[in-house]
Structures are given as structure tokens and as C-alpha cells.
Amino acid sequence: MDTRVEYDTKIPRYCAQPAQTQPVLRPDLGPDRAAAIQLVGTKWVNGTVLHYAFLDRGGDIGGPEQLEEVRHAFDKWKSLGIGLEFREVDDPGEAEIRIAFIEREGSASFVGTDALTIATTEHTMSFGWKLNTPYGRATALHEIGHAIGFAHEHQNPFAGIEWDDEAVYTELAGLPNEWPREVTFHNILRKLSKTQVTGSAWDPESIMEYGFPPGLIRKPEKYGREGIESPLDLSAVDKDHVLRWYPALVARPTRLEPFQSHPLQLSSGEQADFEIVPTQTRKYEIGAFGQADARLVLFEERDGEPRYLTAEDDSGQDRNSRIEVRLVKGRRYVARVRLYSAWGGGGAALMYW
């Protein structure tokens, strides 16, 4: 099992969270700088158009109505007014998110940008049961939550959950999950680092939480007695967090001219967007400057839509993101820079030449 994949199983089964890819950071990196890098983690840059494709038509676990439920779930996340876009495409090779319906695998999704590491012939999200039920619709919302970069809420280190470890291992070792101990630990008992979560409180109503029967939790005692109900919709906290990471895009990108430096006046997690329209077809360099960690992503506009072209990430390194790329005269490109941290105190800037 690829531990970056998040598996969700049919009631009374459970969802197995993937390990989000975390950068290997130098041991001498300051704690604030390291925490900022880990928090941004696998989030997409805002304004990304995420394309999704179906690798089959619902298979033997629901047929075409499965596809409609997934489409509705994407629409529900988008209806919050977030800056991400979701577009269905027919060609899986053009999709960042590729969806399969495979009953024996449960339900699963890679987390955020981890999907970019998967071959375009393979799925990055799967569903293992019918989605036209309240729990099935919640599953679709939950998996899309993973696909845009969010982890399981019950592993939130601020939850204060004290598990009855052996009871959890026993529960998950039985049918229908049949998980070995290491999988149960990774997906349930393991707590995320405080630097990997947004906010400082646990939200048991989050769509990224899932239900547990009584008898698995020692503290808080309420949940040990009553268990946790499976959330069936986006919570108020879910909506707040996704809008914090992906706010609506209301301003046009700033036009970036050759050899003109633009300051990046950003806080950790914030983003700046720049438009590039080259006057010559040639190889260019686009680079950040200053003592800062940042992710730089370049999109090319095709048929009115920004398509991912290339990216560079300098987080945790004493260098700056720099992209060398051939740009075509008259075409429109958008460079998006998400800041992890400005660790040097001297500010940062972006320029192309």
C-alpha cells in the first residue's frame, strides 16, 4: 500500500489516511521556518485548475450515477467560492485527478500535489461503494478534501484523543477492514505534527473526520461512551479553512515586465500572482530573490484556461526558486508564488528576464 494514499471504507469500515509527502528538511533549519514549510505541505497554489477524469464509468458498483455524485461533490466544494477550479476532461493524460471505481480497494485519494507524482495511467482517487447515499456523498466530499490537500481530522494533534490502542487494533483487524497493526497506527493512532494542521482546535463535525463506535476512545470520555458520528457534510470549520487556503480570486495578476523586480509582500501561506506576455519567442528565466522559502508555479493559458507548465520549490534550501523555460511571443502565462516563510527578514521579490 502506498502510504500517501488515503483509503475510505464502507460503514463500518474506515478511511486510511495517506502520509502527506513532507520535504526532508535540514536538521539545522529554524523551527519557525520548518513549521511554515510543513504547514503549506501539499497544498496547491491558489488559482490552479484541477482537471479530473474518470478511468471507468462506475464499474459494477453503481454505474453512471457514480460519476454524477462525484461531479456534485466537486461542485459543492467550488460553490463555497474558493479560488480553485475543477474541470472534467476525457483524456486521463490531461488530468491531475484520475478517478476509478474499484470495490476491493475501498475509497482513497492521494493528498494534494502528491497526485503529480503518480503516472498518468494510474488513478489518484478511487471509490469502492455506491455514492448515492448520505454516507456515499460524504465519502466523495471527503476524498476531494484530501485531493485539495487536507488530512484526517481525527489525527489532529489538538484533538486530545486518548485511544484505547488495543481496542482500535482489534476493531480494525477484523472484518471488513482486516488491517495489519502498522496500517491502523498510520491511519488512526498516529498524530499529525502541530505544524501540519491549520488552526488550533479539533472539529469532530469536519468532513475530514469519520465515525467510530463506542469503546475505542478513553478521552474525551463522551466519545468513549457515545463514539463519533460520521459527518455527512462540510462543517463551518471546513468552509473557513478551505477559504483561508484558497480564497476567491478577485484581482487580475500583476503584469510582470522583463528585468523589473516586483516585491513579494506576503505572510506565510500567502500568494502573489503575475501575468507574463512575452514579446519574443525564446528561453526565459523566472526567479525569486531574497531570503525566503517559496513555491513558484508557471501556467500557460490555453483556450482561456491556465494549464500547469512547470514549477520549482526552494523550501528549506539556501537558494531561490528559478525556472528556465521557453515562452512563446504573444501567449499569456501566469506565475503564482506561494510563500512558505521569509526567514531572512530582508524581503523577497520576483523577476523574469
Helical coverage, percent range = 10-25%
Query: What is the global morphology?
Result: globular
Low-confidence parts, pLDDT < 50 over ≥5 residues?
none
Question: How many distinct beta strands?
Answer: 17
Note the main sheet.
Answer: 6 strands, mixed
Element string (H = helix, E = strand): EHEHEEEEHEHHEHHEEEEEEEEE
Report strand %. 25-35%
Give a verbal description of the structure.
This protein has 353 residues and is of the alpha+beta class. It is built from 7 helices and 17 strands. The chain has helices spanning 31-40, 64-78, 134-147, 165-173, 181-189, 221-226, 236-245; strands at residues 5-8, 49-54, 85-88, 97-101, 107-110, 125-127, 162-163, 217-219, 254-255, 262-263, 271-276, 282-290, 293-302, 305-313, 322-327, 333-341, 348-352. The strands form 4 sheets. Strands 1-5-6-4-2-3 form a 6-stranded mixed β-sheet, with helices on one face. A 5-stranded mixed β-sheet has the order 9-11-16-13-14. A hairpin with a 2-residue loop joins strand 13 and strand 14. Helix 2 packs across helix 3 and helix 4 packs across helix 5. The longest helix has 15 residues, at 64-78. The chain is globular and about 65 Å long. 41% of the residues are buried. The model has no long low-confidence stretch (mean pLDDT 87).
